[in-house]
Every structure is written in structure tokens, then in C-alpha cells.
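Follow-up to my earlier ticket, as requested here are the two runs.
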Amino acid sequence: MSKPPLLVHLIFHPASADARELARTIHGALNADPAVPGLRVPTVFCPTDGIAPPGHYDLDEAERSLAVVLADAWVVDRDSGQERTWSRFIGDIWDACRGTPHRFFPVQLHPAAWGFDDRLGGTNFVRAFAEADQAARDALVVRRLVIELCRELRDWDSLQEPSVEAKGPVALFLSHTKLDMEVEPRVTSALIDYLKHDQPVRAWVDAGDIDAGSPFAEAIERGIDDSSLLCVLTDNYSTREWCRKEIILAKQHQRPVVVVAAFSRQEVRSFPYLGNVPVLRWPCIPPDQSEAQKAAVNRASAVAAVDLLLKETLRYLHATVLLKAVAHQGDLISARPPELLSLLQARGAKTVLYPDPPLGAEELALLSETRVPTTTPLSRLAAERPLQGAQIALSMSQSTDILRFGFDEVHLEGAMVELSRYLLLKGATLVYGGHLGDEGYTQVLFELVRAHHCLEGVDRVERIVNTVGWPLPYGQELVARYSLVARLQHIPRPGDLDACPGKAVADAVEANPFPPDQSPEHRYCWARGMTRMREAQAAKDGGIAARIILGGRFGPPGEGPGSDERWYAGRVPGVLEEVVLSARAGQPVFLIGAFGGAATLAIDLLEGRERSEATWDYQRRAPNAEAMRTLYDRCGQVWWDYPEMVQLLRGTGAAAINPLLSEAENRELFHTRNVARMIELILKGLGNLSAAAGR
């Protein structure tokens, strides 16, 4: 998959903290909603270089892009006299979407943020500024965006021509029984009232059918291929033949279903085919509440139920498109985990392919009685384990200038997790030098290992080697705590520290590795410990087959939005040191440049571009840097200077830094923003390890 099928571009002025926070909220809603764990729609932010808009913007990174413009007062600069203005840039984005598969989705966050470019005069903006409450505003924007994405994905296969738009609405059907219509808290009435009067886009709800109060059996039979079903599960629901039929029809036609559990007392018999779908509990309202309080609770609950169904519909549609892209011949695509009902229909299919995560062993054992094979993309990947026993070092950390590349830390963390998951499934042992605290990427790695221990057919092998460099905490208690997921490899304190700067200083650093204020001596000791750890990882006899690099601090990149003013703690930027040590040892290095940081700094040096950050004049501004360098001289330790590191990387070049890939593939990895493509290239290169070892 060279391109993702769908990509959401979140475009906003870099000086707008409000728009940036809304962009993060949107990313979280599309990728980190615990109520819809399988919903993962990729997003990128608009790259920023200071305040000016980008000179060029590429919407063709995906088969279809949705350009979401978060317009507030900052973008209204049409009369500024500048050649490059945000007003013109947004107008250019609108132009770039015309006659293409891409869509323009503008959101008005301020009353003045409309009509700021002549080309946008007839464009309908989402009037988010009309919501006085920020939480309500953000929810409105997310809801409208989810609906628009559903419209894009609903007609995916039928949209062959770029000029054809997805016009059809998302159809919602309310499945309920009239017997419980007037039973408190009158859930069906609350949902109908919300859908009739407050639906955000009227075209996507069949309001006429809802107003009639019928169970919609005939409507579902007519339009089952294009509907999402919201089931109001009340006491008498499962006793009604047409209600049961609606659920069976929806599942037989593989439609999105959400259940609202709204019992007043109990069910006599639960309907067995109502499982395997998201369930939302309708809150119980105390009888002493006023009518106004009851109405407020019911309305909030109706909003939550419809929003859940919309997100489940988006997950369903997006998962279907992704599964089709990786399906093998003979696969039957299922957007939800298989169950006995669906497998009865799948007889004759070679395999049922459904989204990750895979079902547990107890369910799979039961489903195997149908003799219909089932799998997920990751389970299928795990069946082939060419990296069994290969140790792959990971250099992944927060990036100094990530916002300048159109990403945020949430994107970096997501890419780190996704890449690590694929490496684990391919059988690799991951080597990572990180702190064993309660937070951070190390703990994420351990959770991945615990999760994949449960995968059917995946052996329990050594999955993580955590290199604990002095002065990071280490002891038998930590060894025991992580024994099931990792082997801790301790790199002891460099012996020369006892002589210079002195045993008392080194003991103090070991007792308190993270003081609020670091002295030059503390930073010197820390740097020596971290360099020793990195040298051990890069040693030819260390067993590491390759290293993967992304992110990394290198010091403040300057003024303006996206600048991270925090410095690194060692002698030089840690990720940069890992790159040069691996390059000097001839260790293949996969460099991912999409997220900026020290990885991109190394790429620029490899490709011959000058970077002021790779000079002592720049790095001497780090806290206690000059005093630390003096300690290197006084203690007789070699100071590997920046000109030497630059010369080493320039002499290595883009082709030789990683002989497991071609030069063109290396350069693609340097610059692609498509996480799926990054993983493809890395797995392809690592697949050449055995051939490289033979040479």
C-alpha cells in the first residue's frame, strides 16, 4: 500500500493555540476514542515554518484527502500586503480540491473567519463559533467531520471518476418496540425528538420514518445495504418478532449496529444475536428529578447514542476499505469480529478477514467448529516470522521540531507503537534503551508484548531487551517485575568516573539521576553513562542487526510556533549520537524523517545540507555545555566534535547508511509521511538481513 486510502489534513494558523488544541481533539476523536477502539483514521497537521503558510501543500499523499480548515481570526490577513498570506493559502487549498477526489471542509471558529478569500464566497462553512461552550463546539466539529467522512467512504467503490461526489446521506434507522414507548425514561421518544429537531445534518436521517413511530422493518428490508441501526433495547424489545428480524437482517447484511441498553426492570430472555456490537447504557434518572432535569439527561444521552453510532459507522466503513486493500483472493471481508451467525453465511469462503485485534482463543475454538477459517491482518502477518531471533535497536523519542513537519507528538507516539507492533509480530527482538518509569515508550513496549503473548500461534520468546544505562535505576526488583516481557541488560557505571570527577560525585548522581538543577559534573557523568550504553548497542559483537531512528531532541530550533525549548541531557543529542555510532560500526540504520528532530538532522547531513544545529557554536548554548566539555578535557576523555560527526555522515551517504534498502528506497523512507509505507519499507529491508549476513 503506497498510499493510505484516506487522510485527514488539519489546517490551521500556527499561532492559534485554540485551533491547535481543537486539531488534537479531532485527532483523538478519530484515533483514540475508548468507546470505538478500532477507529483509526490517519491525520496530519499543516507543516509550519515560523508564521508564514507553506509554499506548497500536497493533498495527493492519500487516495482521498479531506482538507479540514480550522479558520479563526488568525487566518484573516488578506490585506496584510504580504506575498504569502493564510487567506490566499486556504483559497489555494480550495482550488486544489476542485476536480479531484479530495474534499474541502472549512470550519468557522470566529465570526470574522469567513469570506477572507474571494474564492470562498459561496462555500458553506461549519459555523462552530455559534456554540458558546467550547466542549459543545468541539463536539459539533467532530460530529460534522465524522458524518462527512462517512459520506466519503460510503460510496468508495462506486466513485471511479474524480468529479463524482459522494452525495448519499448516512441512513440511520431506529429499531424499537412501541410497547415501551411511554415507559420511563421514554428513551425512544428522546431519540426521536433529538433526531427530528437537533440532527446536525438533516439529510442523513430518515425523519419521516422516525416520525411515524414504526419499527422500520420494511424500511430496513428496502434499504439494508445503506443503513446503520440504532437498537433501543427495552424490556419488551426481544419479545417482538419484527425487532428480532431487524437485528438479524442488519447482521446478515453486515451493517453497523449500536445497542442502547434501556431496561426499566429486566428482560425475560435476552436475544442471542444482539451481541458482538457496541452497547451504551442509558442512564437511570431518579424520580425526584424535575422535568427539565430529566429532559437534559435524556437529550445528552440521545446525543451520546447517535454520536456512538456515527463513529461506529465510520469505523465500519474505514475498516472495510482497509481490509479490502490487504485481502487475499477468496477472503470474505467482515468489518466486525466473526460470530456463529456470520460464519453460517460465510460457508464456502476461503477465509473470513476481520479487523484487529483477533478474538481470544476461547472464541476461536468455538468458531472453528464451523470449519470456516478466520484471521486478521496482524494474525496473518504473525504467521510468517522471518525476523525470529533478530535484534533490532529502536531510537525513538520526542522530536524538537515536529510541528514544522505537520505532525504532533500524538502522531509520533502512534507511529512508534504501530511500527513496534509489526516488528514484534514478525518475530524481532526489540532493543531499547529507555527509562523504566511508569510512563513513556518503554511501558508501551511492555504492554505490546503482553498483548501479543495472547495471540494464537505466537511463541512466547524474548521480545524486548531493555538496555539500562547507568545512572538509570536498576536492581533485582526491576528484573523480577519485567521478567515476563523483557530482559534487562545493565550497563554499569564507567570506572573512570570514580577518579574524575570523583567517586562522591558519581555516587550522588547514581542516588539522584534526575535532579531539578544539573551541575556540570552531573551532566558529565550522565553523558559518560549514556555514551557507554550506546557504544554497547553499536558494538559489532552486540548482536544488533539494524537500528531504526525517528524523532529525537537536538536543542531549541528557534523562535515561533512549534519550537521546543528543552535541551537534551547528554554530551550531544542522544539520537544523533546513536546514528553516528551505528554508522561508524557499519550497522544498517533506517532513518525516518517525517517527524523531524535528530533523525531529520542526520538525514540533512547525509544529503549534503548544512545544519547550524550540527555545530559547536549552536550546541554550546545548552546548559553547562562548555563546562562539561572542559571536564572531558580535564578527565582525559575524547571529545568527539561536530565536524567529525558531520564528516562521518557525509562520507557514509544516503546509499551506504542502510544497505538493506536501495538508495531510492532509503530516500523515500527519509521523506514519506505515510506510516504504512514506512513500515513496508522497514519490513522489506529487514527481510534482506539473511542475504546481507551471507555477503
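Run two:
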Amino acid sequence: MAFDAFYMTCVLEEIRALQDMRIEKIHQPSRDTVLLHLKHREGRAKLLFAANPTAPRLHLTTASPENPPEPPMFCMLLRKHLSGARLVSVSQLPMERCAMFTFDCIDEMGDRVQKQLVAELMGRTCNLYLLSPDGRIIDCLRRIGLDETTRRAALPGLNYQLPEPVTKQNPSALVAKDYVNLLSAPGADILADRLMDNLGGLSPLICREAALFAAGDCDARVENADIPALAEKLNLFFTEHLRHPTPCFCAQADGTPKQFAFCPIRQYGDYRQAEGFSALLDMYYTVRDRRDALRQKGQHLRKTVQNLCGRIRRKMAIQEKELAETFDRERLRQLGDIVTANIHRIQKGQTILEAEDFYDEEMKLIQIPISNILSPQQNAAKFYKDYTRMKNAEKELTRQLELGEQELSYLLSVLDELNRADSDQALDEIRQELQQGGYVKADAAKKRIKQSKLPPMRFESTDGVPIYVGRNNRQNDELTFKLARKDDLWLHAQKVHGSHVIIACGGRPVPDDTVTQAAQLAAYYAEATGGQNVPVDVTPVKQVKKPANSKPGMVIYHTYRTVIVNPYPDIVVDELNAEKKDEL
């Protein structure tokens, strides 16, 4: 990617085009992201600030990320100072990813004042500052104390200090002669590295593009090159693309961008042109941010479930070892019989009984250890008692192993749900399911906010028949046993964890194409996603039963037919045109 200072300049030009914008709403979807909802003469827009050190950026967006139930303190502070404020000007430090937004605001006394929102998007020092009219820091997104590792403190009440100016040359102010001097002076032998070391505001991607344009190779060397000709081409490249930037990107196989820049990207082969600089950033980051945010939010739950699965596996391994030891219990009964038959031969204080094994065809002599503090009758009774204990242990261990298998299967299904969760609300429902099962403690200090219930996913086959897919175990139960009719069709991937799928046919004949597409959904939303020739069981809903005291999502069925399908994602998304908000 190439969100450098000159790409930021292009984005800020798009923002300046929306004059007299007023802040209507302010949200903070995540710790490092702030979203301003703006009103202007042409309608509404959303301005996103992402002060994430791994992906810093600012741009106009059309995305609507989910917000936390309670807004963070920095978000509340921005609402207090900037709600209703009008954007007056936008500026940028030369060759730096630092932008200043000046707003006309009304203070607590009713006076009109100007406050600034400063976005510093430079690597590890990414931050968002709210400044008072006199330049003091009202607060910032990430507070930083002054120590040996930093030169600028970021704390409320301190005077805001601008970042140190870039000492490199500005490529927009250079001419061909300047490039001759740059190439003639000592420096890195690789042309792209030489440009990166001497020119400010450019990313390594742009420097490689300039080397490709000027010398025909991204790894071209300065040594033995035609300096005047090379300088002329470099001047042409930067003059053209800095004065007339174009949003371009290289696409992955699924069409999403893998690299973007303000100029054509030829080093990766074919490239495409986007509608705008903000639109390109929105397209690049929206899917990635949503996926990363869900993965981070669900990481704690995923780790908890994985630990529980590991604990159950270890417990079952111990139980299986103990169960194997009970298989030899018959010998204990036989020894008890031998001791009983030879009670008259046991002397006081004896610890070994030597007697004939009448269970052996050859009647060999065996030595049986006995206790010298027990009577002969008590020694015989001890063997019978151990035999009975082993017999009862076999029954109990067998039962415990069955319960362990069920619990492990349930937790693995929850783990599969976590991997397929596509929203914060879906993660919250899984957390509630684990809390009700006693696997996760409820946060007593956290305020409970009632949220709308997440409905099952709704699809429509090419024949116009509704198809519903459960998102988690509790929703699977509700979909199968409450929402579906008894004469609807029920589908589930065979012998793997996955979603319950309902074809809402109401007893009417179902076209084969609809059954195939519903089976593809069942295979796609199952643990077997990514494989081929997945078996999917199909049966009427009335044939599906829930055992007593079973875990959520666990069912049994006996009468069914099986279809073999391939869970292709393009069929699921494109052909069926998924709708995720309608209820059954």
C-alpha cells in the first residue's frame, strides 16, 4: 500500500471540495478509529480517521462500522466540543502525513471560537489531537508521557508541538537539474533506494514505480546509468503524477485491492483505476478492518474455548487410561476365589499366599500378595471389593467419556461459530450462549444493554424459495424447533459441525435446484468449508429431534437422504443473493 503524504494530499483535496461541512454525529467504532458524520450542501458524508500504527489513514467513507454500546471517553469529549461545528479549513504539513482541520465552534459561554482537530498518521506516533483556540491540547486519542523514547509529550493541558519538519527534498519543487545533482551525489546504488533516501513524502512503492518508469526496472542501479536521460524521465514522472494524480490499484483474485497509489502501478502487471482516492481507501480497508476487528474481539472467546477443549481432551485421556485398567478386573474375582479356597492355609503375619491356580488348566502354583494386618476372610473380601469397584468404575467412566465427547463436540461447534461470526452482534450472542452454559463468567460490572435479537440469515433460491440459515447453536435450535414448520425441509452437513438450514417450502414439492443450493449453503456454513464433495443430509423438520438435556444445537435424526455438493462461495453470495435481515 502507499498511503504517503502525497496520497493524503489527494484525499484532502476531495474533502475540501465539500465546503461548509457541519458535524452532525461523532462515533468511535474502535480504539483507534473516529468517524465524523458531516452535513453539507450536497448531502451527507462520513469522514474517517484511523490512527492505527499498522494502517494509518483518513478519508471519506460509505461504510457504517458497528459502534460499541457505550461511547469511549474521547468520543464523548469530541461530541462535547465539536458537535454542530462547521469545518473552516483543511491544511497539511509539507511532505508529512499530518493534517489540520479547523472548525468554527460555540464554547460553553456561547462565544464563537475556532478549535482544531489534528491527525498525525506517521507510523508508531499515530495520534488524533483536539486543540483549544490557544493551541493547547484539550485531549488526544493516545496519551504519551515525556521520557527518553519520545521528544513530544501528548497530554491534556500541554502546548501542541508540530512534528519535526521533513529534511528531505520536495519532489514537487524539483526540476531535471535537481535530479541530475541527486543522482550524481554519493548515495545508495539502487535507484529506488536513492529516491527514498532523498525525496520526502513518498512511499517505497512510488519510488519503485519511478525507477521502473525511468530505467525500465524496479531494481535499476544508478551506477553506469545515463544520468541526464534518467533525470529527465524522473522529472517527467513526478511532474506528471504529482500535478495530475490518479487513484490506481492492483487487484487480487477476488477483485479487492492489494496495492494502491496515486499513480499507475505497473510493477505488478495489470492495474485498475478507482472512482476516487477516498473510495479506493474505503474499498481497500473496509473488508480488512472488519475482519481484523472481529478476529481481535473474538480472540478472547476463541482462546477460552480452545483451552476448554484442551482440558476436556486431557481429562478424557486420563479416563480412557483408567477405563483400560478396569478390563482386567476378572482376575481380581478369581484371586478372591483362590484366597477363599485356601483360607485354612493362611498363617498369622503371612504376606504371600502360595496356592494352586484352579482357573489354570495346568494348576500352576501362584503367589498372591495379602495383607498381614487383615484376617484371611478380610483379604478375600478385599479382592471381591476391588473387583466390584472396577466393575462400577467401568460403567461410570464409560458414562463420563460419553459426556466428555458430547461436551467436546459442542465446544468444537462453538469454535466453528466463532470462526464464521460476521458481526459484533453474532459474537455477543455466542458469548451469551457460553455464559448460560457456565463456560464464561458474566461481567457483573459491565452495564447490560438490551440489543435487538439477531435473525437467521435469509437467502432466496433461483426458484424463489426462501432458505434460512442459523448463525449459532442457540439460533439453530430456535430456527429448527420454533420458527420452521414441521413440513419444511431441514439440511445439515453430515458428521461435521455447522449451521441448520431450512427450506421454507411448507410441504410443497421442492425443485431439485433449490435443494442443491440449500445444500451448498449447509456445506458452506459448516466446518467442512473449503472442501469438495461434501455430504449434506436432507430430511423433513418433523424427523429432527432434540435429546433431553442436550447442548444447544445438538439434534438427532434417523430418516434422511444425502446429497453431495461443493460449497462454492460465489454460488452462495452471487447466485442466491443473500439477505441477512428478514426473519422467517
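The only thing I checked on run two: The chain is about 35% helix and 20% strand. Let me know what else you need.
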